[in-house]
Write a structure and sequence with these properties.
Blueprint: E1 14-20, E2 29-34, E3 37-43, E4 49-53, E5 68-70, E6 73-75, E7 82-83, E8 89-91, E9 105-106, E10 108-111, E11 114-119, H1 140-143, E12 147-149, E13 155-161, H2 165-169, H3 177-181, E14 187-196, E15 199-207, E16 216-223, E17 227-234, E18 237-248, E19 254-263, H4 273-295, H5 306-319
Antiparallel strand pairs: 1-11, 2-3, 3-4, 4-9, 5-6, 6-7, 7-8, 10-11, 12-19, 13-19, 14-15, 15-16, 16-17, 17-18, 18-19
Length: about 325
């Protein structure tokens, strides 16, 4: 059931997280449900990841339940029909001919250890490059000991949260909630905000005490309404980077993903207990929002206070581009 006040009837388009790359071994086939659809996530023997609609176009078997990878193809458990990574039928084991039918496939991108799928309710392919996210996320493999954590140490998934992706994204324009929801006693301000096609940017400044000399900034970039990055800097030096991602399961519930990369200790050592504590605290801060999100109504035309109206309204206008019914 659509939540009261929610103005859209369609799921949003964009890139959405469906897992972490390291979770999917070559040859693995897994069922999933997102965007109100039963899906199959598979990785071929050579390592190519794919997402398909779950039901075989031949006679309707659920390929995610009993299907298997044979080389580079996905085989249906019912009659062994094989489909390549684009969903084309490439083998009917008991026939000299293949079928023109296709298993619907969805674009997949693997970025800094995140597995993302493209969704568009109209079936349109990707309209922007998911690797824009990588510009903000430390590539731990490439940068060695400069950053630690990510997956699995910095990663967490919350299943079936009663929230829409845009509701989480709207938090980035709302510094006032930090005091009431997160019990923050620091001073937070939106310094500036801007949009760039599918990307919306917000820069916060944070001062943890009125006379504290050091200043923190939180640079947030959201890529569509599915994936956003937050870069925490102290005096212009990155301390940690967080990715929050929200993927709709159906019209009411979403899976929420959090992944944190932290600046490595100066001696190049691995993650410390103190760093684990920071990661746990950040995940706990996200959880504090859940109670609000899961029990709220969406107000389509709020009576904003003057201080919050500008960024909030700009973000809502920007987000409208991702809905086919807008």
């Amino acid at each position: 059931m659509i939540r009261q006040g929610w103005p859209h009837q369609s799921f949003p388009s964009g890139w959405f997280q469906i897992g972490w790359s390291a979770d999917f071994a070559p040859g693995e086939v897994r069922s999933a449900r997102y965007f109100g659809k039963d899906l199959v996530i598979a990785r071929t023997e050579s390592g190519t990841a794919s997402v398909f609609d779950a039901y075989c176009p031949h006679l309707g078997a659920h390929i995610g339940l009993g299907g298997k990878i044979i080389g580079e193809n996905l085989a249906c458990p019912f009659h062994g029909w094989q489909f390549d990574s684009d969903g084309r039928n490439v083998l009917v084991p008991y026939s000299t001919k293949v079928s023109k039918c296709r298993l619907r496939s969805w674009a997949v991108a693997e970025v800094s250890g995140l597995m993302l799928m493209w969704h568009d309710p109209d079936g349109t392919g990707p309209t922007w490059d998911a690797h824009a996210v990588a510009d903000r996320v430390p590539d731990v493999d490439a940068r060695g000991a400069e950053y630690v954590a990510g997956y699995p140490d910095g990663a967490r998934r919350w299943e079936r949260v009663h929230v829409y992706p845009q509701m989480i994204v709207e938090n980035i324009t709302d510094p006032a909630h930090f005091h009431w929801v997160h019990h923050a006693d620091w001073i937070t301000r939106v310094e500036n905000f801007s949009e760039d096609g599918p990307q919306f940017n917000v820069l916060h400044t944070m001062q943890f005490a009125p006379n504290e000399p050091s200043k923190w900034t939180l640079d947030i970039r959201t890529y569509g309404v599915g994936v956003m990055t937050g870069t925490f800097r102290r005096e212009d030096e990155i301390q940690f980077v967080e990715v929050q991602a929200t993927t709709p399961i159906d019209e009411e519930y979403s899976d929420v993903w959090g992944t944190i990369w932290m600046k490595a200790p100066d001696d190049g050592s691995a993650i410390t207990d103190e760093m684990r504590g920071v990661i746990a605290m950040q995940h706990e801060q996200l959880e504090r929002d859940f109670f609000i999100w899961e029990n709220m109504r969406y107000v389509p035309a709020p009576p904003f206070a003057p201080e919050e109206a500008g960024p909030y309204r700009a973000l809502r206008r920007w987000a409208g581009q991702f809905y086919s019914d807008n």
